[in-house]
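At this stage, I wrote out one protein's amino acid sequence and its backbone structure tokens, and that material follows here:
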Amino acid sequence: MRKVQSQFGKGPLQQKIAVGDLHVLADAEIGNGGSGTGPSPHEYLAVALASCTSMTLKMYAERKTWKLVNATVTVVIERVNDVEVFVRDIQLLGDLDLEQKERLLDIATKCPIHKALAGEIQIKTQLVN
């Protein structure tokens, strides 16, 4: 995995993010004190789950030679009683029977980001200067 680095950007909360040689922005919405110039950190969590799910479904269907034309994955994160609830909707397009669709729904829970978010997580923080 490429190293991810974040540092202050323009405006009150914008962050300049480097992922290897790729550069993106993160920010908070205007209503939350930011400038709205990029996805929020929570939205990047949703992006990670949605994109990983779709990639996993594509790889599995291709390996099985199933006729999955597209998988549209929508993720919204809601906070309920101090718990982050990830609501994931999956739309499967293609010539698939009910058994294949049910199997793909099961496979969605096996994407690496789903496993990371649903499993035990450790964060090690250290000061480096």
About this structure: Residues 59 and 72 are 14 Å apart (CA to CA). The first strand starts at residue 4 and ends at 8.
